[in-house]
Amino acid sequence: MKQIGIFGGSFNPIHVGHIALAKAVLQQCDVDEVWLMVSPQNPLKQQADLLPDELRFQLAQHALEGVAGIKACDYEFHLPKPSYTWNTLQHLSADYPDCRFSLIMGGDNWAHFQRWYHWKDILRHHPIIVYPRGEYPGTIDVPLLHVSSTEIRRQVKEGESITGLVPPGNEDMVKEYYRPCVER
Hints:
Elements: E1 2-9, H1 16-28, E2 33-38, H2 53-63, E3 70-73, H3 85-95, E4 99-106, H4 107-111, H5 119-125, E5 128-131, H6 149-157, H7 171-178
Parallel strand pairs: 1-2, 1-4, 2-3, 4-5
C-alpha cells in the first residue's frame, strides 16, 4: 500500500520552508510521497491578500517541478464546502483505495487538535506527523526556517528582496502576483 503524507495549507505563496519540510517528511517518515494540498479560500473568511485558488496552485506546481516525491494537489478545490480535513481524508481514501494517508501538521495545530471536526476519527484512521512550529514541538526533526508567507507578501509589497525565500523559478511570479494593484 502506498503511503502518502498530506500537507495542507493556503500556500500563499509556497516558500522554501514548505518544500524543506516536505523533504524532511519524505526522509524521516514512512511515506512514499508528500502531497501539498492547496486549500481553497473559505468563502466565510475573506482574506484580502489571498491569491485566487488556481494561482496559488500554479505557483505550487511550478515550485515543485523536478522535486521527486512531492506534488501540488488541488483535490480540495473539487470537494463540497466547507473543507474539513476529515471529509478530505474520507474522499481521498475512497478515491485512492491503494493508498494510506497520513496527516502532516504543525505543532500549533496539534496543540488544538481536539477542536477539529471528527478529530477522534482522524486519529483512529490516519497517522499524524507533527512538525515543530514556534514554541510547539513536533514528532519529526526539521530545521526551523524563519520564513513565512505573510512576511514574503509584506516584503513584495515593500519592494524588498525575497531571494532565497521562495524557489528561484517562482520569484518573478510571486513578485508579479503579490505586488499591490496600484503598481500593476
